[in-house]
Specification:
7-stranded mixed β-sheet, globular, about 210 residues, alpha+beta, 8 helices
Length: about 210
């Protein structure tokens, strides 16, 4: 019933502004299951770092809202038009410092450093000079099945095509709905299996790189 009621409401798309931040932190936290890796305090800090790291890279952002509440977001970047997002880089830096003053934060950060290293390997092995990247894409779990993801994905592709990009890539893993990308014609160019510590236990995860020719 909840989704049926939401379907009847108007979906509005806006450029990101700071009033969206708190809800986007929650969406990030739920989408990437940060509470499995860390305490609530550290999970929130990880969400803050993630959002500002994406904002520091993006050249295009759209936030989907229902009743003025963010329910989805997508960010892309044109690699030939790198923005100097100093404001967000500074926020990212301060958020990282806030994480690293905690012992748990330092331990947790090692997991995400490993993920970044895996992504770098995947991109290197893809051996392509991509013109664009899908930096961040998430839909609130309470609003899935409404076509929101498809609308946001289409807006990002329209932007990239209109801005002169001819291809793009993204990173994802088995904690996400990676089947969405295959359903939308993206090609899996590489994958890596890694062990990640979750709730004190080691778990197998797969990390992927997908790409798309515009």
């Amino acid at each position: 019933m909840g989704n049926e009621k939401k379907l009847e409401k108007e979906i509005v798309f806006e450029d990101y502004n700071k009033s969206h931040s708190e809800k986007l932190f929650d969406i990030i936290r739920k989408t990437w299951n940060y509470d499995q890796f860390a305490s609530p305090k550290i999970a929130r800090k990880l969400s803050v770092i993630f959002l500002y790291s994406c904002l520091a890279q993006q050249t295009f952002t759209k936030v989907a809202l229902i009743d003025n509440v963010p329910v989805g977001v997508i960010m892309a970047r044109n690699k030939s038009k790198e923005k100097s997002n100093i404001k967000y880089k500074l926020k990212q830096f301060m958020a990282i410092l806030s994480l690293l003053i905690h012992k748990e934060g330092r331990q947790t950060s090692k997991i995400f450093k490993g993920v970044s290293d895996t992504d770098a390997v995947l991109l290197n092995e893809a051996n392509r000079d991509y013109s664009g990247e899908l930096v961040f894409f998430a839909v609130d779990s309470d609003c899935r099945g409404m076509g929101l993801g498809q609308k946001l994905f289409s807006k990002a592709k329209e932007y990239m095509k209109s801005d002169g990009m001819n291809d793009f890539y993204l990173f994802t893993d088995t904690t996400c709905n990676f089947g969405f990308y295959e359903h939308n014609g993206m090609i899996r160019r590489g994958e890596k299996r890694e062990k990640v510590e979750v709730d004190g236990q080691m778990a197998d995860m797969k990390f992927f790189i997908y790409d798309f020719d515009l």
